[in-house]
Design brief:
Length: about 270
């Protein structure tokens, strides 16, 4: 199943940044976590987004997948299931599990009725601010097959933000995108270097030219800069720019969502 079958071109995907999960410093419990998540969901949908991406963004400091307890998958499955029931069966829903917990994301997505995952460390190892990240595509696609969840799509980051890519400096972004396509990803995510930083136009152009995979803009897109990417993207993931004060830690600001959606609509009308 191709990405555009579920998520049409031009879609805006709103981030649902979960409060700390159980066991993480600052956790307030599942009831408070769900209340905040559903409030953000309602604000994003009222503003006009076409899909949602759930992420355990407040789980700092993050741990590796092998260091996670079973409470992570259990909590995320509950949250994912509640959001799915809240929005109905048709809205595209995705999940990213920090950090680089791609098998866990597939398992939760299958249990909760989600449509896609965002994966870091799909191809090529890199050094993140949380430690070394191994490439995971081979293990994850086999696991997805084993649990009969091949309908779940993978949007894979290339040159993941908050990371050093010196070890792959001899590979161009275009070469890395081409290899992500070879390794069965369904979309490629292009970002800036950090959360809230927009991707360079050159990187987006290179990714578009390197494969037929849908290109997803994964950070830093705002109502003011979306037009610079013209018709080069399939979908946009937004978090910081649609939060109160532009701060990813804050609740979603419905007016900011509306402004971005209107800017997108104007752009698509001109094409």
């Amino acid at each position: 199943m191709m990405t555009h079958d579920i998520i049409p071109r031009g879609s805006i995907i709103g981030m649902v940044h979960l409060l700390p999960l159980p066991g993480v410093p600052g956790a307030l419990g599942m009831s408070a976590l769900l209340d905040r998540a559903l409030s953000d969901v309602d604000s994003l949908l009222a503003g006009g987004v076409e899909g949602l991406l759930i992420e355990n963004m407040h789980d700092f400091p993050c741990v590796r997948e092998r260091e996670m307890g079973p409470e992570v998958a259990a909590s995320l499955a509950v949250v994912g299931g509640e959001i799915r029931r809240h929005v109905g069966p048709q809205l595209p829903l995705g999940l990213q599990v920090l950090f680089a917990a791609n098998r866990t994301a597939v398992a939760v997505a299958a249990a909760a009725g989600l449509n896609f995952i965002r994966a870091e460390g799909w191809t090529y190892g890199h050094l993140s601010d949380k430690g070394w990240v191994e490439a995971s595509a081979g293990a994850v696609v086999r696991y997805r097959k084993q649990i009969e969840a091949e309908e779940i799509l993978v949007w894979a980051d290339v040159k993941k933000k908050h990371a050093s890519h010196a070890i792959t400096a001899d590979l161009s972004l275009a070469e890395q995108v081409a290899n992500i396509a070879l390794h069965r990803a369904d979309g490629v995510v292009i970002t800036g270097a950090t959360t809230g930083q927009a991707p360079s136009l050159e990187d987006v152009q290179a990714a578009t030219a390197a494969s037929s995979l849908p290109v997803v803009l994964g950070s830093g897109v705002t109502a003011q800069n979306i037009s610079r990417y013209q018709d080069l993207w399939h979908a946009v993931i937004v978090g910081s720019s649609v939060k109160e004060g532009g701060d990813w830690r804050q609740p979603v600001d419905q007016e900011r969502v509306r402004q971005l959606v209107e800017a997108r609509d104007a752009l698509l009308t001109c094409e």
